[in-house]
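Thread: Modeling a multi-component assembly for a lab meeting

Hi all, long-time lurker, first post. My supervisor asked me to bring a structural picture of a complex we are working on to next week's group meeting, and I have zero experience with this. I have the sequence lines for every component (402 residues in total). Could someone generate the structure of the whole assembly? Inputs are pasted exactly as I received them:
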Amino acid sequence: MKKIRLMVFGVLAVAAAGWLAATPALAAETAGAKSAIGPVVKTYKGDKCVEDTEFMRRNHMKLILHQRDETMHKGIRTQKHSLKNCIDCHADPKTNSVLGKDGFCESCHVYAAVSIDCFTCHSSAPEKNGQPPRAASANPPGLMEKTISSAVMGTVNGNHP
Amino acid sequence: MSLSRREFIGIGGAAIAGAALAPGLRLVELARARSPEEAATKLQRWGMLVDISKCHDCDACVSACSTENGWYGHNRPATDPQWIRKVTLKDKQTGYVESLPLMCQHCEEPPCVDVCPTGASFKRPDGIVLVDKHICIGCRYCMMACPYKARSFVHEDTINQKSYAPRGKGTVESCTLCVHRVDAGKIPACVEACTKDGNKAMVFGDLKDPNSEINKHLAAGPSTQLRPDLNLNTGVRYRGV
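Re: Modeling a multi-component assembly
Sure thing. I ran the full set together rather than chain by chain. Output:
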């Protein structure tokens, strides 16, 4: 009888230990954004990605690379696998970007220690979401005029037919 | 199953007729706006005609280009990007001054493509000359090769790029003939601005379509390429230079 009681206790102890070990992982998964460890993967628009999540995790870079060459060299401008489409859905409305600590792209890339090269040239903000019109902010008219007038002088003067 | 001689000839004839008809149907399709999944083809060559006699002291084309493509200067004329600029020509003997917009001339034989060591400088099948900034290493050979000084090097970090016109430090850029607009069946921003706010000096269109507006304009009067001696067959032509 004593033996049986000991065995039951042992089984319970093992189960409890297992449960305790599993709990932090579970907590980390559900907490998501609050946890400092691990990527923040959030979608802000639409319910579904253009492909399965598992497929996208492994292959998003291949899709973007393929689309890049199609668009650049052939002029094929389908939306489905374009970087613009990624940004439109995944940009955080608060920061208006896929970058930043909790940004969709950056948080995961930092976690995986893979540098992203896209955003040295491409904008990380979706165009529709109230991006400030650049003409007003970054291009004051006075600057423009100066650039032109100084450029006008030394160009094809002697070269024209 | 065996075919009689008559049946065989009948089926063969139908197949030949189908093959002959299909490309024709496609031609008609491409003459209209291209759908996003269709690639640019050699059936078109985009070009522009600028009438200098109508072009006056106005920079509508330059500011429209800057706004559309999101490039801007830092008040450093020697290194600021210029996808399009106004050039003043002065006849030294008579003192006559005229002004023209100068941008990438979208040559049929582009020297920038010849010299590019990585293949970043390329010509699309429809004649638009572009820089693939994914491949560009920023060596600037193309800038030296271009007789029109049409290309710029990005010296500064960029902000607020347009999604359709990415630009980044360390790469070369130039007029894209507003390829994103052309692909959508629209005309370049400079031509639109010139027609709307400027002096209606620019015409854009397909040089391979005999019925296009630009070809009618070209046929109606004289026009010239800049530096025709170089035999580059530019896509941009000028009248009254």
